[in-house]
């Protein structure tokens, strides 16, 4: 019975960001002849998290040893540099500084040195005079220099993955219904009425991944709570040579306001992390009541807010006050003024939150019947996208 069905593909991937396209690439590389269809609701690839980040190839220094984030970021960073070189995609290995500006940050900086060594990442400890050798305008009490960090054009990477995979990538294909039959496979209906049938479903829908999981009939056990990151460009980019980060708060997955010289030579400043009022809420004026109600109806959102409201209040203040944002930047770059910061496009982070209010701090991949769901893949997922794609592909091929 199953062999007589007309399948449009073997594997049906929902989501044309870098993780979905990397999965398609890994599938066709690992099992040549596997028919893969990718459905993306936008008119092109990488329109959300992939195309709206700061373009950093992360070293993996921040992440708990033996976590997926640590393993995949370290491996993925090296692979991403090789991939960009192979296909002629703009990239550069710049290194970066992580700078302590207050005495109470020094123990956390030293802990990062140890974590870097445990993750196999070369780090160099710097004093104040050595900081100014790397970054003449940056001031700090101490810093570490991480040589394996880089930058690239992730939008171009996503386009190349789509081309090199040989998958049937369909843009403007928003999924509205999923019919899954354990003995048969999955059938997906898109907004234009088309139906696509496959043997296994892969959910790489990013900001919509929990909704897609529920459409498929699986309880994801989490909800995406969207956090908007607001950025500025530095009007005097010559003030910063490379990448400069503060010492992050270990309680949060956000890395704080940092300075990133991009592939085009400009310097990105940011982001903060404020609740978005829609899954794709790139400004305060973007409000989708149904999506907002879904966030507010999740018990974990309230528990998270109750636990971390002081941190959130500071982020909101920096969102509404350019002066407060400038003050945060001045901790690293004292010479910067409010006039030096020019607003640019924001991004939204798809952060998975559990029912108890915990922020999921590692990549989260779960399986259902004839389905694999990628349920938490924010930064450093772009860096780690090639290993993530292979990990998902292995699970899919086992189901096939």
List the topology elements.
Elements: E1 11-14, H1 18-30, E2 36-40, E3 56-57, H2 68-87, E4 91-93, E5 96-100, H3 106-118, E6 123-126, H4 128-134, E7 142-146, E8 150-152, H5 154-165, E9 168-171, E10 175-181, E11 185-190, E12 195-198, E13 200-203, H6 209-215, E14 222-234, E15 243-246, E16 258-261, E17 267-270, E18 274-275, H7 289-296, H8 299-320, H9 322-330, E19 341-354, E20 364-368, E21 371-376, H10 385-399
Parallel strand pairs: 1-2, 1-13, 2-9, 5-15, 13-21
Antiparallel strand pairs: 3-8, 4-8, 5-7, 6-7, 10-11, 11-12, 14-17, 14-18, 14-19, 15-16, 16-17, 20-21
Helix pairs in contact: 1-5, 1-10, 2-10, 8-9
Description:
The chain is of the alpha+beta class. Helix content is 32%, strand content 27%. The strands form 4 sheets. Strands 5, 6, 7, 14, 15, 16, 17, 18 and 19 form a 9-stranded mixed sheet that branches. A 6-stranded mixed sheet has the order 9-2-1-13-21-20, sandwiched between helices. It has a 3-stranded antiparallel sheet with strand order 3-8-4. Strand 1, helix 1 (18-30) and strand 2 form a beta-alpha-beta unit.
């Amino acid at each position: 019975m199953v062999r007589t069905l007309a399948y449009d593909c073997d594997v049906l991937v929902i989501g044309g960001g870098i993780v979905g396209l990397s999965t398609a690439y890994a599938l066709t590389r690992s099992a040549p002849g596997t028919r893969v269809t990718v459905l993306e609701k936008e008119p092109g690839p990488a329109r959300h998290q992939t195309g709206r980040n700061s373009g950093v190839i992360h070293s993996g220094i921040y992440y708990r040893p033996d976590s997926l984030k640590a393993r995949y970021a370290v491996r993925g960073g090296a692979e991403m540099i090789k991939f960009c070189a192979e296909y002629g995609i703009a990239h550069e290995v710049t290194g970066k500084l992580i700078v302590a500006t207050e005495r109470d940050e020094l123990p956390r900086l030293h802990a990062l040195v140890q974590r870097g060594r445990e993750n196999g990442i070369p780090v160099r400890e710097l004093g104040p005079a050595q900081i100014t050798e790397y970054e003449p305008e940056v001031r700090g009490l101490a810093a570490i220099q991480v040589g394996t960090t880089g930058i690239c054009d992730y939008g171009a990477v996503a386009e190349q993955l789509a081309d090199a995979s040989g998958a049937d990538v369909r843009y403007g294909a928003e999924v509205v219904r999923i019919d899954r039959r354990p003995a048969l496979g999955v059938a997906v209906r898109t907004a234009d009425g088309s139906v696509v049938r496959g043997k296994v479903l892969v959910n790489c829908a990013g900001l919509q991944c929990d909704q897609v999981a529920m459409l498929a009939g699986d309880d994801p056990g989490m909800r995406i709570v969207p956090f908007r990151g607001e950025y500025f460009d530095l009007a005097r980019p010559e003030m910063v040579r490379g990448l400069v980060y503060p010492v992050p708060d270990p309680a949060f997955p956000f890395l704080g306001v940092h300075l990133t010289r991009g592939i085009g030579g400009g310097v990105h400043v940011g982001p903060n992390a404020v609740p978005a009022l829609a899954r794709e809420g790139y400004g305060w004026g973007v409000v989708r009541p149904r999506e907002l109600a879904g966030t507010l109806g999740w018990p974990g959102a309230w528990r998270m807010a109750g636990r971390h409201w002081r941190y959130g209040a500071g982020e909101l203040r920096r969102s509404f006050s350019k002066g407060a944002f400038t003050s945060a930047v001045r901790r690293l770059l004292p010479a910067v003024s409010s006039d030096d910061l020019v607003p640019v496009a924001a991004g939204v982070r798809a952060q998975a939150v559990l029912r108890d209010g915990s922020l999921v701090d590692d990549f989260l991949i779960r399986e259902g019947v004839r389905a694999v769901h990628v349920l938490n893949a924010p930064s450093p997922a772009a860096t780690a996208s090639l290993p993530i794609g292979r990990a998902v592909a292995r699970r899919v091929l086992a189901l096939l």
